[in-house]
Amino acid sequence: MARRHDPERRQRLIDAAIRVVGQKGIEGLSHRTVAAEADVPLGSTTYHFATLDDLMVAALRQANEGFAKVVAAHPALSDPEADLPAELARVLGEWLGGDRTGVELEYELYLAALRRPALRPVAAEWAEGVGVLLAARTDPVTARALVAVIDGICLQVLLTDTPYDEEYAREVLTRLLPVPGTRDASGPGSLPPATAG
Amino acid sequence: MARRHDPERRQRLIDAAIRVVGQKGIEGLSHRTVAAEADVPLGSTTYHFATLDDLMVAALRQANEGFAKVVAAHPALSDPEADLPAELARVLGEWLGGDRTGVELEYELYLAALRRPALRPVAAEWAEGVGVLLAARTDPVTARALVAVIDGICLQVLLTDTPYDEEYAREVLTRLLPVPGTRDASGPGSLPPATAG
DNA sequence: CCTCGTTATGTACGCTCGTACACATGGGAT
DNA sequence: ATCCCATGTGTACGAGCGTACATAACGAGG
């Protein structure tokens, strides 16, 4: 009854969708659950997002900004003087250490692209976005490699209940840098006692 | 009518489940679709696998053997003399280059562990299995890193429609090896022209 | 041969889902 | 002030789902 003329309805639906995925997983995402979460009638969700894919694309696009924000909060990542692997490892630690819901959500939507072609471009945008950011500090090949290993590390943490090990991440990221840039390196020569599974 | 006393029913249901996931994705997996694919009545699937999780665990466990078989087919991976990164890159190429259905299926079930705790241990088994195999050639930390980057590379290929680049994979894997083992290295010093996004 | 428990089968119940569609409403253009 | 259409609302339909359960067939052990 009341809520006629709600100009932010669409945005609130996206927010609701993100909350739903965060709480029930992507399988729990439906027009109805989103409608309930946003406290709007069912018909409203189908009006603003004709198909579920539309809604997921919008949600994934917005969720992607989560990591971007964490990155943006660390200007050191763009500082050519800073220790890139150490900074990246720290950022990952923050991201994985905080409310894990956000990370799971982002990866869940990200991974959903495996079966949903509609999400594929958005997933690519994410990888490319992080890649571009990192390429500014290294080179395209290294950047892609860093993105790959970041994904891999996050998956290991999320999928196998292994706690995140920042020192391990730093070591692995360091190894990926092209050799000329031995950085200020305290010497990657020998392994840290680190944490092996 | 006919098929009373079918001693391999259970196994055929697992096979059918794998085919279903391969064709329709994990969301298409249901007691009914599996029953149809295996050409058995609905009640039969619920008899052998009370819950869908049971069925998925069995399917994931069997699917995991896919990569293991590819690995086993490359004894060079266990040969201390062989060039590990090159061999790994080649194996990945074979795996990703063949019938992609198998890879997608394996990753789909693997990634499903993100939201299904029941699958978590099986996913961990896989990572650990590959890890142990690689640890025999390097060390635990490096092995975990290799698994991470392998996952990351596969995800990049599967999620962003980027073709697999074996040379790139070889380079990245090489960098991950601990420095003392500069291997026979033709010199990781400079980047290949490679493929950058 | 007969009994009995494991295995197999068919059907039904209650639920959620995507989608369609008819109707209400209110703000901006005229 | 009026009209019109983008926006909002409620309800219904058909389909698929997990699950439960009563019943049938079979093979092993008596």
Major β-sheet profile of chain A: none
- Roughly what is the average pLDDT of chain A, rounded to an integer? 86
Structural category of chain A: mainly alpha
Q: Give the helix level of chain A as a range of percent.
A: 55-70%
User: How much strand of chain A?
Assistant: under 5%
Radius of gyration of chain A: 19 Å
Biggest interface, CB < 8 A: A-B, 55 and 55 residues
Q: Shape of chain A, please? A: elongated
Q: How many E-type strands of chain A?
A: 0
Summed up, the helix count of chain A is: 9
For this structure, the quaternary state is homodimer
Poorly predicted regions of chain A are 181-197
The SSE order of chain A reads HHHHHHHHH
Give the CA-CA distance, first to last residue of chain A: 57 Å
Description:
The structure is a homodimer of 197-residue chains. Helices cover 64% and strands 0% of the residues of chain A. Chain A contains 9 helices and no strands. The first copy, chain A, has helices at 9-24, 31-38, 42-48, 52-72, 84-97, 100-112, 120-135, 140-160, 166-176. The first copy, chain A, has 197 residues and is mainly α. At the A-B interface, helix 6, helix 7, helix 8 and helix 9 of A face helix 6, helix 7, helix 8 and helix 9 of B. Chain A binds a DNA duplex (30 and 30 nucleotides) through residues 1, 3-6, 9, 30-32, 40-44, 46-48, 50-52.
